[in-house]
Amino acid sequence: MTQPSSNHWLKDVARHAGLDLDLPRRPPITAIRSVWPEVAKACRLSDDHFTQRVAGHFRIGVANVAAYDPQAVRMIPEAVARRYGILPLSSAADTLVIATSDPTNRGAHKEIVAHSARQPVFMLASPAAISMALERAYAPARAPKNALRTLVARVAESDFQVVTNQGKGLFTSFELEDPAVVKLADVILQQGVRYRATEIHIEPGAQQGRVRYRIDGVLQHVVDLPPTAHNRLVARLRHLAFERPDHNPDDGFLIEAGGETSKTAHLLTTPTPDGELVSIRLVDPNDVPSLDGLGFDGPEDRKIRQVLGRSEGLVLVTGPARSGTTSFIYAALSALKNQSVISLEGRPETVVPGVTQIRYDPMTGISFAETLQQLLDRSPDVIHAGEIRDLPTARIALRTAVTGRKVLATVHTSDAVSGIRRLIDMGLAPGRLGESLHAVVSLRLVRRLCTECARPFDGERDAKSREAKLASVLGIAPVSRAVGCKGCAGTGYRGQVPIPEVLVVTPEMKALLGHSPNDMELQRAAQADGMRSFAEVGLDRVQKGDTTVEEIERVLGIVPTRDETADSVGPVLVVEDEAEDMALMSGVLRSIGFEVVEARDGHAAAELLEHGDEAFSFILMDLYMPGMNGKELLRSVRQSLATQSLPVIVLTASANPRDELEVLEAGADDFLLKPVMADRLEARVRAVLRRSGVRLAK
Predict the structure, then answer these.
(1) Which domain holds residue 168?
(2) Predicted TM-score (pTM) above 0.70
(3) Average pLDDT, stretch 74-80?
């Protein structure tokens, strides 16, 4: 009886036709796409006839990729369709007709079932035909990004900039109303609102600037900006924010994104050598956070409500920038609004009904502490003292808490214990602090898994993923994995959940503060009193299916170095257009024990990274390649949320010293000149992996 071949079927077909292909048993679609024409030619068949022969071999029909149902297309995300080279054609109650070039791909079968809840019925089409059809089928979903790039090009090519005797960069009112400039500004602002961005960053560059949105706490690349387009866009935004005669710049300006969706934009500009850096903060002044809406749960939720329920004492809220402290303060003030509440703020971002919110104006010549002291004459039950920046403000907050009032205040520190240390370092006596301090609430924010596309964690299928490896080190079992869909802009996450540390000052803690303890003693005492650390709370959220270990590690950095072997750490992506160099580098890596995935140019590598299901351990790439070169590929890797932390080693035969500086500044982890010795390459690989938290076994 003939034993089944251990090769991929396409390699067997090529072998019978006299063609020896370097094709793995489970090749990615990029490899099949590149060798398909060679095999058809070796078989002396046209592409159409070869497709018919393959369809006959598998006893399936030949697909008409021009006739696809848009409703069926929407069932499979574009990333999945490109990853496996498949195109949904039509659907029924229990089945989904799929055009494919590789009917044996089990991964495609699993993904189709997972996303559509239907069994696939495969029909055959050549990779080239499917690739062209995918462009048409998924073009509507990419239309906004394409339109934005077109607008940028139009603005960059516009001929409206004027030069005066004061130099370049001044704009006439006519230019500021140029339709292309107006449209570009409107699209960037409105799209930011629709994508739930909290900030828009318009960043200059000597050769190329960029626009980025901060969504769920993470900056995401939107579009590149040539310097000319950057200057005109910034001029238009400055006009909207500062230069209209009927407008108060302190109030921000309104962005309406259709329907009832709108935000107020506050613009900040900073001059740099390459142009103005613009940051736009997007807020809804009428969207008042609530404790329920913020998403606290477990013992921390109960402690926070108990802390706010007390009528006196200082509640200190700590955390770095964008950790949720402002939203928490507004939610706490809203929960206390039935009392007499006064809030002193630099600039109120949200109007809280029932709370007297006063803006501090340093131009009056009265200090923040003096202003806070004057407000105490109104005898409020609760006072929000803003951010404690100096000793006078800290002393007033402490004295107010001693007199039977509740005081809320913030400091920027990394954790709960550090909040206590900051006040002591300002000059407060530890014993006096213990008398008035009731609790410290320290916050972090992690992204919540998108409920529309998150899928259950599969121990077998996801065994080589970074999520599985991090979870194994920590000894926990993940519940779900991020996938990505249109609703979450392909990130796999939508919204954020708080990760709090809640330190309640108990009688034992007060006694300890009287003896001027160090931070370690405070930490131990707090944990003995029941305070859970950020890591404990975060991993609890993972096991509830709210987020992932990768996200907890991104925010908290809690995962220690782990020991792995070359075959367990994950495959290496080698990008090289020269066959001899590819064979050399791949051979060295395979001799160490790595699985190697090869890409012959930057475009093939980018497609593997964007749509592939391989959890690569690192990338080894050539610098100068036809089409997309190494610098462009590196920029693409660092701009993508999915690959921005992936280690990259760049190799080149160029002796230009600028190359090394440029690629390292662009985010490469290491740089090597060709030819490279095997032991030197292995040493650099080990060092790069070690810096990413992996200790490679000998």
Answers:
(1) 141-283
(2) no
(3) 83
